[in-house]
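Appendix B. One record, verbatim.
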Amino acid sequence: MLLNQLRHVRSKANFNNFVHNQKFHTLDRARYQLATSHEARMSPNADTTTVKNVEISPPNSRILGEIFPTTRVVPMVLSNKEPVILSFDDVPGPKTLKYLSNVRQYLSQVGTQLMAGALTVGLNIGTYINNRKPLKSLSVLFDEYGPVVRFVSPMGGDIVLINHPDHIQKVYTMEGESPVRSALDSLEKYRLEHRNHAFSGIYSVHGPEWIRQRSTVSSPLHDAVALHMHGLNDVCESFVQKVYNMRNHQDEVPKDLMKDIHKWAFDCIGLIVFSKRFTMLDTELIYSQCDMSWLYHSLEKATEAIVKCESGMHLWKLFTTPAWYSLVKNCDSLDSLIGKHVMEAEQSISIKNKTENVSSQHSLIDTMLLGEERMNAEDITTVIMDMLLIGVNTITSSMAFLLYHLAKYQRAQKLLHEEIGDLSIDLKDFKNIKEKTPYLQACIKENLRLVPPIPVLTRILPKNIILDRYNIPRGTLIIMSAQDTALKESNFEDANAFKPERWNSPDAKDYHAFASIPFGHGARKCLGQNIAETMMTLLTIRLVQKYKLEYHYGDIEPTKTFIAKPNRALKIRFIDRTQ
């Protein structure tokens, strides 16, 4: 008690020397009043009735801090104010890359895609060292850093990864009429530098030119599907018959089923584009003298080369690698063979009588040559090459995984057979077929949710955007992990299971519209969605009507390549149905 009184006397003495015009903190003043009144009450000579009337002047804040140390006060964010916007530098991500960014000014600008490829390799190696298994998805990054992850690139522009449906929707909402996405650098370099094409392809081109080319292709492509329904059905029947002929005593296809699915997709796309039956399903050997056979061979090799170039370190940008050499060689072959078909169509049109109905040719090439926005032969060749490289391979991947899921999940296959077992297909009204097969359409949709053929979608921001309170600047490459989003339990219950019925239940309306977007969204939505769904519907009906599918081996996972494909052989049993 005596010590407290001495402290109080010292405080008053120092206060007399204080500068009277100094402002004091309200908290210090209140605490001083509280302490003084408390000492007065505790003093044996104090008159408790007069303490309340004592006028207390503001003390020296420095001295009071020594007597009554104050705690740090963090201001609260009021609910009626805007949330705090954080800078781009605050976006979380691997710290090592942020350290490397300090030397970015000393390195040549070899491209953002090079950094993306290096990240893929590095993440797989690092994850394997730590967990003894390769990286299956980008989910480990989101689990560690949150829904927005930034990769600071010492070479090229920075990269931001997102996997939340709200953020994906926001990116698509602000993309505008001519959105820009990350192109296939290898294919773009081949066309612009090696071939000196002014048009880099509908997959890569941007801006007003892309709008013009897409509007020219979209309608003819949709019409071509309806015009060739009978031919597409014949190709599906040929596949069913080939499966019957190839089966062994265990009812399995001993050869690579994936290759035959690829040939089926090639024949179907070839029919739609060229209005010709290529019959690769019936061809076992490749002949360079046969245009159809050599076109298929060049497509296979060019696809392999593009996948190698786009995966891992992009060393082909620095010097000629074996993959780049193969890409140039086989894309040259594709360009030549496709160009030959286009020139034949152009010559055929030129010699026809003007009064003749050229639309009877039912050729996509003819339509593009005769449209209001007429395309030249070189541009048409480039567009068709994109359709073959992207369309054939994505449809092959989706069909392979659909057969796998139906063979693995017998309950789903049983429900599907109940729906389509006795279904009669009217090829003149295919839209009606889709309406009659809601469970089949749900199977296709669920299959694409589990394994989207292109697992990541990209956009280059045209302007600044706020994602999870982070200010992301224009020009940043956004990578949207479509597969990781579709496999999150917060978006789909029992997300890793094949459950087609989820799409036909009343709860389906509650699913976020951007939780599963295998065909993309908006202006650059996949042009081939109708083609893919039509082809998969026809072949699935024919196969399930004739065979019961079974699979008795280990789980099949999608590869982490530009276009996902099964990581092991499709050893599916095709058992004849007795009814």
